[in-house]
Write a structure and sequence with these properties.
The complex is a heterotrimer of chains A (248), B (368) and C (306).
Chain A: E1 5-16, E2 19-30, E3 34-39, H1 45-52, E4 60-65, E5 68-69, H2 74-80, E6 81-85, H3 96-106, H4 111-125, H5 140-151, E7 158-162, H6 170-185, E8 189-193, H7 197-201, E9 205-210, E10 213-218, H8 220-227, H9 232-240
Parallel strand pairs in A: 3-8, 3-9, 6-7, 7-8
Antiparallel strand pairs in A: 1-2, 1-4, 4-5, 9-10
Helix pairs in contact in A: 3-4, 5-6, 8-9
Chain B: H1 2-17, H2 19-39, E1 47-53, H3 58-69, E2 73-79, H4 83-90, E3 96-100, H5 104-111, E4 116-120, H6 125-150, H7 171-201, H8 203-208, H9 214-242, H10 252-276, H11 280-298, H12 310-315, H13 320-333, H14 338-362
Helix pairs in contact in B: 1-9, 2-7, 2-9, 3-6, 7-9, 7-10, 7-11, 7-13, 9-10, 10-13, 10-14, 13-14
Chain C: E1 4-13, E2 18-28, E3 33-37, H1 44-51, E4 59-64, E5 67-68, H2 73-79, E6 80-83, H3 95-105, H4 114-124, H5 137-149, E7 155-158, H6 167-181, E8 186-191, E9 202-207, E10 210-215, H7 217-222, E11 228-232, H8 236-245, E12 249-255, E13 258-263, H9 268-280, E14 287-291, H10 295-305
Parallel strand pairs in C: 3-8, 3-9, 6-7, 7-8
Antiparallel strand pairs in C: 1-2, 1-4, 4-5, 9-10, 11-13, 11-14, 12-13
Helix pairs in contact in C: 3-5, 4-5
The chains are: A alpha/beta (248), B alpha/beta (368), C alpha/beta (306).
């Protein structure tokens, strides 16, 4: 049985004046998949991610995200996805509980639901003692775990993670990936960018963007086989070194 | 020296590459002049008035003619009896009614004393006062002409001369006010923001970890804003000369020297604020609170200080723009020289020195 | 004389509420490339700011090339180069203007010290008239390095120069640091990326303001006691769960395409038994073999011991 396509992109393009940030990319991501979206700085990853999350209208091409057209229903898309970036995911001057309540509130959960899921999450993360502390007083690793849990609190079909583990210690980084696997097991599709090449190995499938184009896309195993190397780092080095556009 | 030059060059790049702020810096004085010149002017132009002439003789007709031909008034209607006065005001079109009692001319010539009544709509006190003054002026002028013609030496001219501003032009006092405000805005806000921006950007870290002296950072930061402020002063003076027909009565050189002093006051205040703020928003907020409010309220620019309660009068003494306002008014409008403003100049210079020294000593050589 | 010396440095923020660095001691030799390896919040930036005289420690002593960070801060400021964690150049100035500005501030010229930056500057020279704000992450990094080097510093402080930069640019950046070593500059670099640790002469593994371990990367790896195994199967995530449940497995975590694990006793029998059990549990294509530990393995082990 063919699984549901959570992302469907055909010849998706974004131009800024003469500059083609994303050059006709086509790909699909299936439900529950962990999809690693890699690329050099300036390859067009952020632009592509913005188009897919309904924040920016493509110049041409088509794309369906969570079943909705990015041109016609960007608001519907926003309701059905979660988003977490390294920088601005939680309010530092609110407490853990306040953040959870706020974010579940904006996704329109009922009062009982907010209470129940909030409690569940605090227990799962082991944050009972810290629930009424300001987020800025938490260690970075906890913040990131909390931010991720908040991003999937409304049980979206798809969650975008933009460098979620940057600067986090190796143990916490792995705990973070446990959360990702759990989400994936629940059927949430994970779309993730990272600069840690070992994390690329944890993904089901990887796409590597170079100069606005998807240069390679497959499972880590097949990519390594194809390029005849033993690590994703080497695959990345081979592809990204071809980039001519490191100057943008 | 070469270091300082490079630093100043860098500051100019910052200023000239930020087109929006640059536009604001130079657009501000122009917009303010126009705004104050038209909208907020206390001057009365083409005010509608009504006339109740119960005498209809030469003298009353002559005065009515003078009123009608002045720029300030438009005779909206002539009314016939006292009962129509209220109606005229209620129509909302009439700001004042001028009433001539019967036999106006007779009384004036024979008894040398005639009755003329002005009823003004005092719901807007300022306008009412101004209208009153203008009308009185016109009548006085008529009286003078009459006296000149008949040359009766024993009649005493009434003392209603308006000092310095015979037509009571409102622009006269707002020009020094605007000068003070613009210089403060540019000096205080721009300097404080540009220093705090380096803190936010992290470049301050690199500058501190260099042999560059703090005093030089400060001097370099001042340079572009001194020039922009001088240009603004020039723009304001040119605008007031050509647009409002207000020349500088006193020494132009002295006016520029005093302006330069006030610019330094503003820059020192900006420096102090930058030392105290961590973010650009804080700097902006403190700058606005420290410049706009005191200048508008306590400099004598909008509200006369003499009429304020004693505590406010005392506080107004620490507002630098108050002193600058007095200096510019004296030089520009009264045409006075340094002998009249040396005291204010010294106070301003003292304030500048104090602010500068405090902020330089507070300027941190470290991050915390 | 050590190029950089820290003795019992303590630094707290918010009036002692938050401890950034506790009893921190470290010596960096002249000409050494020394790495501070640790996550955000380990205290790396605090160490840099104390050494560059930007903040004062609560207690302890620190010096750079023999100059005390408190007494002789002016001498230090003349002699060190510093590249702060965030991109700290003027975004509205061009590449050339930024470089010229910093050269002048440090009382030198680009020409005078061009040999110092040639290799790096040549890579960004094609864009010398571009505003710094419009450069890509890797380019910004190179420009910042040029600006920090332009006055031929004796000691170079690089605070997380590779954070947020892609893997290719990161590799290039470390190649540049290798080149710089030939000029005899002492370098103190911090990074959260464990794989970069091997490029340093010596490293300190840091966590929450303390040093967990300090040595050369080779020596640290060698001192990893016991055996480390790597394992993989078709059912990767389940393999992790199964191994975690197993009583003989002391520690297991994912590591690239493999999982790494240690067993309670390093005997072959235990390993074979474990393999058999996993096969019974339905793991296909199971691989399980001994492997060489990396710095990251050392770090994880130290963190778990805490």
């Amino acid at each position: 049985m063919e699984r549901e396509k959570v992302i469907y992109a055909r010849n998706l393009e974004k131009r800024f004046g003469d500059f083609i940030a994303v050059n006709k990319i086509s790909f699909e991501v299936e439900s529950g998949e962990i999809f690693g979206f890699l690329g050099a700085n300036g390859a067009g990853k952020t632009t592509a991610m913005r188009m897919l999350s309904g924040l920016s209208i493509p110049s041409s091409g088509e794309a369906l995200v969570a079943g909705f057209d990015v041109y016609k229903f960007p608001e519907k898309i926003k309701q059905n996805i979660g988003y977490m970036s390294q920088k601005f995911s939680l309010y530092e001057d609110l407490t853990v509980r306040e953040n959870i309540h706020f974010f579940s509130g904006i996704y329109g959960l009922s009062k009982q639901e907010i209470e129940r899921r909030g409690k569940e999450m605090i227990e799962k993360l082991g944050l009972e003692k810290e629930a009424d502390k300001l987020v800025r007083d938490l260690p970075l690793g906890w913040k990131q775990k909390l931010a991720f849990s908040v991003a999937i609190l409304h049980e979206p079909k798809l969650v975008f993670l933009d460098e979620p583990t940057s600067g986090v210690d190796p143990v916490t980084r792995r705990q973070f990936w446990d959360l990702i696997y759990d989400a994936s097991d629940k059927g949430i599709t994970v779309f993730i960018t990272t600069h840690y090449m070992d994390e690329a190995e944890y993904c089901d499938r990887i796409s590597i963007m170079v100069d606005g184009v998807i240069e390679a896309m497959d499972s880590p195993f097949k990519l390594k086989q194809h390029f005849g190397v033993t690590s994703m780092d080497e695959v990345f080095q081979i592809l990204a070194r071809q980039a001519k556009r490191s100057d943008n | 020296m070469k270091q300082l030059r490079a630093f100043i060059a860098k500051e100019f790049y910052h200023v000239f590459r930020d087109h929006k702020t640059l536009l604001l810096l130079f657009g501000l004085p122009i917009v303010q002049i126009i705004l104050f010149g038209f909208a907020l002017s206390t001057e009365v132009k083409n005010s509608n008035i009504a006339i109740l002439d119960r005498s209809k003789d030469d003298a009353s007709r002559e005065i009515i003619h003078k009123i009608a031909s002045s720029d300030y008034f438009e005779i909206e209607r002539n009314i016939r009896g006292h009962e129509e006065i209220l109606e005229a005001f209620q129509s909302g079109k009439v700001r004042a009614v001028v009433i001539f009692e019967p036999d106006f001319s007779e009384h004036l010539l024979r008894e040398n004393k005639a009755q003329l009544q002005i009823i003004a709509d005092a719901s807007d006190v300022n306008t009412a006062t101004t209208i009153n003054n203008y009308l009185t002026n016109i009548v006085t002028e008529y009286q003078r002409e009459l006296l000149g013609a008949t040359s009766m030496p024993w009649v005493i001219e009434p003392e209603i001369k308006m000092l310095y501003n015979p037509q009571l032009k409102g622009e006269y006092t707002f020009i020094p006010g605007i000068m003070a405000m613009i210089m403060l805005l540019v000096g205080v806000m721009m300097t404080s923001i540009s220093i705090v921006r380096e803190k936010e950007l992290g470049t301050m870290e690199i500058l501190l970890v260099s042999p560059f002296k703090p005093l030089w950072i400060v001097l370099a930061k001042f340079a572009p804003y001194v020039i922009i402020s001088i240009l603004n002063v020039t723009a304001i003076l040119l605008l007031s000369y050509f647009f409002l027909e207000l020349p500088v009565k006193g020494s132009l050189f002295l006016l520029y020297v005093e302006s330069l002093l006030f610019i330094l006051t503003s820059l020192s205040l900006g420096l102090l604020i930058s030392v105290l703020s961590k973010t650009q928003q804080t700097a902006m907020f403190i700058s606005l609170m420290a410049t706009m409010l005191p200048t508008l309220l306590l400099s004598g620019f909008m509200f006369p200080i003499e009429n304020m309660p004693m505590p406010l009068q005392v506080i107004s003494n620490i507002v630098p723009s108050k002193w600058f306002f007095i200096i510019v008014k004296s030089i520009m409008i009264k045409g006075l020289g340094i002998e009249a403003v040396w005291k204010e100049t010294l106070i301003l210079a003292g304030m500048t020195l104090l602010l500068f020294v405090i902020s330089l000593r507070k300027f941190k050589i470290r991050l915390e | 004389m050590s190029a950089v010396e820290l003795e019992h440095i303590v630094k707290t923020y918010q009036d002692g509420g938050v401890t950034a660095v506790k009893d921190f001691s470290l010596k960096v030799n002249e000409g050494e490339l020394f790495g501070l390896i640790g996550p955000d919040g380990a205290g790396k930036t605090t160490i840099f700011r104390i050494l560059t005289t930007l903040i004062l420690a609560d207690s302890g002593r620190a010096s750079v090339n023999g100059y005390d960070v408190v007494e002789d801060y002016n001498e230090i400021r003349k002699r060190v180069g510093y590249m702060p964690g965030r991109f700290s150049l003027y975004q509205d100035l061009t590449v050339a203007e930024n470089l010229h500005f910093f050269a002048t501030v440090f009382k030198t010229t680009i020409e005078e010290n061009y040999d110092m930056i040639r290799d790096i500057y040549e890579q960004i020279e094609p864009f010398k008239d571009r505003r710094a704000g419009k450069l890509s992450g890797g380019m910004k990094q190179k420009l910042a390095l040029c600006c920090a080097l332009i006055h031929k510093p004796e000691v170079l402080f690089l605070d997380e120069p590779t954070t947020g930069v892609d893997a290719v640019s990161r590799k290039e950046f470390w190649q540049m640091l290798d080149q710089l070593k030939k000029h005899g500059i002492t370098m103190l670099v911090s990074t959260p990326y464990m794989d970069e640790a091997v490029r340093c002469d010596r490293i300190a593994l840091m966590q929450q303001g303390s040093i967990l371990a300090m040595d050369s990367p080779e020596q640290l790896v060698r001192s990893f006691s016991g055996k480390l195994y790597q394992a993989k199967s078709e059912q990767k995530h389940r393999l992790l769960k199964d191994l975690r449940k197993h009583p003989q497995v002391v520690d297991t975590y994912s590591f690239g395409e493999y999982l790494h694990l240690r067993t309670s006793n390093d005997s072959k029998e235990v390993l074979e038994a474990l393999k058999q059990e996993l096969l019974v549990q339905g793991h296909e294509q199971l691989v399980m073999e001994e492997c060489a530990p990396t710095i990251e393995d050392c770090f994880i082990r130290l963190l778990n011991q805490e």
